[in-house]
Specification:
Chain lengths: 116, 917
């Protein structure tokens, strides 16, 4: 990839970080490692957070009360901090989905993008 | 499989290097993530080394800067916040003092509660101690403004048999003492009531003394204007009445007119030439505005009449002790020569400063002690605050050492913080001192010598600031220096602190010390409270709170004063009283030569029918008082037998007296007092009053005894100061034994009506005669307890402050202790201990600490009993009621303070507690 391409994807990643994490925790609470793993597997490695940026995003979402983190102790496991979406988060997720859908539709139409 | 690697330490170090503050939770969370990466790599078949490398790579690729959080995080900021702040603001390893000061200010802003409490406590200690030291310096320590003031003493008669230690002196005795070789000079005075009447100005009752011509020579002061009494002039001058006036009177009444010297002032109708004006603030002996030169020979009076005051200058080559021995040797000779009047009378010499200070000297010493205790408690409080703060920074200091900070940088930083705190505390203290001093001066009773000259003493301020600053710096620096040396004992990972046990012991000692000192203060204030209430509860024999009192001095003229003038005075007083009673709102009115608590004249008498004692010294003595009809009613005293005076007891009727119960019990016991006849030879009190029932003749002519019939017995009206037993007293009727000056007592619907009634009566009967100061009886009673009440107020304030600080100390200690012992408490709970028992153990420990403090506090009170005894009234410093009250209050306060930490202790979640580290 060229530097420009890298920059394009990086910019898109930054803007979509919140959307991605909210979508991942929409159905069930997950801890950071699980979130990182599902993101990596679900995007075939295209989308990856560094350790710091993953947790920075999680903490930011928590401060905005879009997710809520709780320490959970499961039998036979070390305790983990699991993140669950809140009602406010669901609304934000819905809004972001709509925004991104419109954005991608516009890109597709104007820039002639091919669907994956 | 768990990694053997300590991820948390590595994460913290990474974050610190990048200047990022991570909470414990964040660190744990990220560490768990790395553990998961490690475990995942192991599952995939990696070796331990490879798995660690993979996890570390994830950490290395992360720019920790994105985790930089704003200050208002929901999780509590750890010690690393501060280390990070140091690292970033100081730019790494270099740290200079100005940067350290700026950082110190930021640090303290991040802990506003700690900073505010520390500054408040320092300010209170500095302000209170400066104020009190200033007052003590002004009132107690500064020399009197007279020549060689250490050689000036006051002279008092004493009679141990009668329990009299400090009595005004007999004029005739004084004239003998005056001749002692040990005395360089001696002056005497008494206190007549003088009315000043100037054309065009309101009549004014002035505070005056009639004093021997050498008073100013003895003191070594000269007038600011005029010559004053001639230097080396005669002791008394019968003709040529002369006065010297005060600067205050000169300015307020005569507009500082310099031509007043040589002009006449009319005092009680008699013109007196003004010989001089004294310097500003000179009002010796107390609040005097007019010094009238003595006009009569003190030899021509009675050795038994004790009513004069005297000041003496002791010779340069003689000590006060030697002078006292010489005076008492003379007193013994006078007893031998004049047994009938001088038996048991000795003489006391009191240094002038001590005399002027009176109650205030011991009171001020007690106050100095109290404020020192407050300062010490404040310093202990600050010490405990700084100690806990230092301990809470162990981790920060360890990290900074790990990051390469030098001890000098750390010391500089801690010093900067201590300096900021002590500077702010000192400023608060200075402000408090400047505000408190005028307020205290305003609250203080009138007549505290030299209090109005007190200004904030810079020396006292510097001393207090130095004490506070030293405490702050020592307790801010020392614990941290200890931690620096023990850096190997501190582990960044674990919360176990090797210094905890030692710190807890130090902290406990500090808190126990605060409790002990607070106990001392509370006991002192309880003792003063009980003293004041005992004084206020002293039986007076009257029920006169709302009675309005004033003095009325009728004019006399010429010398010698004619008997007709006395007769006219009696008639005039009676007319004034009748007129007062006719005014609207007046219920009763009366008059007396002196009000309760003041002494009458102690003079001999005999009982008709009893054997006359062979030796004159065996004659009975009682107090002589003169009252009008209506006095008993207006003061609501109680007639126990017979009757009081009526307006029909005139010079033309039977000579009658009323006696008090002490008189009846002591001298007429077993027989009815009413109807008995009492013999007296006292026909006059100098120019003050004359017994019209005696045959006419010169005032100082000796007389044969005259019998007065007892017509009534009154329940004891207190005729001695608080603390002395009531003495037997005889009351003569004012129409039969008139005085020019009488104290009027008026009971009306309100004080306004009483005042209007007196004014109206005076305007109608004697328009040129002014009223004296008007006071209600309650005000007069309060005035007798002003000094102990002021001391009580201050000690109570200090005691409450000290108790609050001690409670703060207890709260702080046990809060910190519970936080330190979370793991221990969690283990106990896990092992089955009941939460209540855990909480109870905290309370038990705090009560034990408080009990130790109380015991030490009581011991300190015991050591201070000499100082305390001098300010108490009929109360011992061991008064059990006060000790119990103070101890119980402190226990209660301390109990309240340790309840929140105890509740926190019993709420410890065993699981969370065990994870707390």
């Amino acid at each position: 990839m060229t530097p420009i391409e890298i920059t394009t994807i990086d910019a898109a990643k930054k803007g979509s970080a919140d959307l991605l994490i909210l979508a991942l925790v929409e159905d069930e609470p997950l801890h950071g490692y699980e979130i990182a793993g599902r993101l990596d597997r679900g995007s075939d490695g295209t989308l990856r957070f560094t350790l710091a940026s993953l947790y920075a995003t999680l903490y930011r979402l928590e401060e905005r009360e879009l997710v809520r983190g709780r320490w959970v102790e499961r039998a036979g496991q070390r305790r983990r901090r699991c993140y669950r979406i809140t009602e406010k988060g669901r609304k934000a997720l819905a809004a972001q989905r709509e925004d991104w859908s419109r954005f991608i539709a516009a890109l597709t139409q104007i820039a002639g993008l091919k669907p994956a | 499989m768990a990694s053997p690697h300590d991820w948390q330490t590595e994460i913290r170090a990474r974050a610190a290097r990048e200047g990022v503050a991570l909470t414990d939770g964040m660190t744990e969370e990220i560490a768990e993530h790395l553990e998961d990466l490690y475990a995942g790599a192991i599952r995939e078949g990696c070796t331990e080394t490879e798995a660690q490398a993979r996890a570390r790579a994830a950490l290395d690729e992360s720019a920790m800067g994105v985790l930089r959080r704003p200050a208002a995080a929901t999780r509590s900021a750890p010690a690393f916040d501060e280390a990070a702040a140091v690292a970033t603001s100081a730019g790494g390893r270099r740290l200079n003092m100005s940067a350290a000061l700026r950082l110190a200010l930021r640090q303290l802003r991040r802990h506003p509660g700690f900073a505010a409490v520390t500054i408040l406590v320092l300010g209170l200690g500095v302000g209170a101690s400066t104020t009190v030291f200033t007052i003590v310096d002004s009132v107690l320590l500064r020399p009197l403004p007279y020549t060689d003031p250490d050689r000036l003493v006051t002279l008092w008669d004493a009679n141990a048999r009668r329990g009299l230690a400090h009595q005004t002196i007999s004029p005739v005795n004084f004239m003998d003492y005056r001749e002692l070789p040990a005395f360089e000079g001696a002056a005497a005075w008494w206190r007549p009531t003088l009315n000043l009447i100037d054309p065009g100005l309101d009549p004014l009752r002035v505070n005056a003394v009639e004093v021997s011509g050498n008073l100013f020579d003895v003191l070594g002061v000269r007038p600011q204007l005029g010559e004053g009494f001639p230097v080396g002039g005669p002791f008394f001058v019968q003709r040529e009445p002369m006065v010297v006036i005060s600067d205050r009177l000169w300015r307020t009444r005569y507009g500082a007119d310099r031509s007043i010297v040589g002009k006449p002032l009319r005092l009680n109708g008699v013109p007196h030439v003004v010989a001089g004006v004294m310097p500003p603030r000179f009002n010796y002996p107390d609040d005097i505005d007019v010094w009238q030169r003595l006009q009569w020979d003190l030899h021509f009076h009675s050795r038994a009449a004790h009513f004069m005051e005297a000041v003496v200058r002791v010779r340069k080559d003689t000590t006060i002790e030697q002078a006292s021995v010489a005076a008492n040797t003379l007193a013994q000779r006078l007893i031998t020569d004049f047994p009938q009047t001088n038996r048991d009378w000795t003489v006391t010499l009191v240094p002038l400063l001590d005399e002027q200070l009176g109650y205030y000297r011991p009171a001020l010493f007690v106050l100095v002690g109290a404020v020192l205790l407050v300062l010490i408690i404040g310093c202990l409080n600050v010490a405990s605050l700084l100690l806990t703060r230092a301990l809470s920074r162990e981790r920060e200091i360890a990290v900074r050492i790990a990051m390469g900070a030098s001890p000098r940088q750390l010391v500089a930083q801690l010093l900067a913080e201590a300096c900021v705190l002590s500077t702010a505390g000192a400023i608060a203290g200075v402000v408090a001192a400047f505000a408190a001093l005028p307020a205290l001066v305003a609250l203080a009773p009138a007549g505290v010598p030299r209090l109005d000259e007190a200004h904030v003493d810079l020396r006292a301020l510097m001393i207090a600031v130095a004490i506070a600053a030293t405490t702050t710096i020592v307790f801010g620096l020392v614990p941290a220096l200890v931690l620096l040396r023990r850096k190997t004992a501190v582990e960044l990972r674990s919360g176990e602190r090797g210094s905890s046990r030692g710190a807890r012991r130090t902290y406990s000692i500090i808190v126990a010390g605060q409790v002990a000192l607070a106990c001392t203060l509370l006991v002192s204030s309880a003792l003063l409270i009980r003293t004041v209430s005992k004084m206020m509860a002293t039986p007076t024999g009257v029920d006169a709170d709302d009675v309005v009192t004033t003095s009325i001095q009728l004019a006399s003229s010429g010398f010698p004063i004619s008997i007709q003038q006395f007769r006219d005075a009696g008639v005039t007083h009676q007319a004034i009283l009748e007129r007062i009673r006719q005014q609207p709102g007046v219920m009763s009115a009366g008059a007396a030569t002196v009000l309760p608590f003041d002494l009458g004249w102690r003079l001999p008498f005999a009982i008709e029918g009893d054997d006359v004692p062979v030796r004159a010294e065996d004659r009975k003595i009682a107090q002589y008082h003169v009252v009008s009809d209506g006095y008993v009613e207006s003061m609501r005293a109680t007639i126990a037998a017979g009757r009081s005076f009526s307006r029909f007891d005139t010079p033309d009727s039977t000579p009658v007296i009323v006696v008090n119960e002490s008189f009846a019990t002591r001298f007429l016991a077993g027989r009815s007092a009413v109807g008995r006849r009492i013999l007296t030879t006292t026909r006059a009190f100098a120019t003050l009053g004359f017994n019209l029932m005696f045959p006419p003749g010169p005032l100082n002519q000796p007389s044969t005894p005259l019998a007065f019939e007892v017509v009534g017995v009154v329940r004891d009206i207190r005729d001695t100061p608080i603390g002395e037993p009531v003495e037997p007293a005889m009351y003569f009727g004012v129409q039969q034994f008139p005085f020019f000056q009488m104290m009027y007592t008026v009971r009306a619907v309100d004080s306004g009506a009483a005042l209007r009634a007196v004014r109206a009566a005076l305007a109608a009967i004697t328009p040129n005669v002014p009223m004296g100061p008007v006071r209600s009886w309650r005000e007069l009673m309060n005035a007798r307890t002003t000094e102990p009440r002021l001391l009580m107020m201050l000690l109570t304030f200090f005691g409450a402050t000290a108790a609050f600080l001690a409670a703060l100390g207890v709260y702080g200690l046990f809060s910190w202790s519970v936080a330190q012992r979370t793991r221990e408490l969690a283990i106990r709970l896990t092992l089955g201990a009941q939460p209540l028992s855990v909480g109870a153990s905290v309370i038990r420990q705090s009560l034990g600490l408080v009990a130790i403090g109380l015991v030490v506090g009581f011991a300190i009170v015991r050591l201070s009993e000499a100082a305390l005894t001098r300010v108490l009234f009929e109360l011992s410093p061991h008064d059990p009621g006060s000790l119990v009250a103070a101890g119980a209050l402190l226990l209660l306060v301390a109990l309240g303070a340790c309840v929140p930490p105890a509740v926190r202790a019993l709420r410890v979640d065993p699981v969370e507690g065990l994870r707390a580290e």
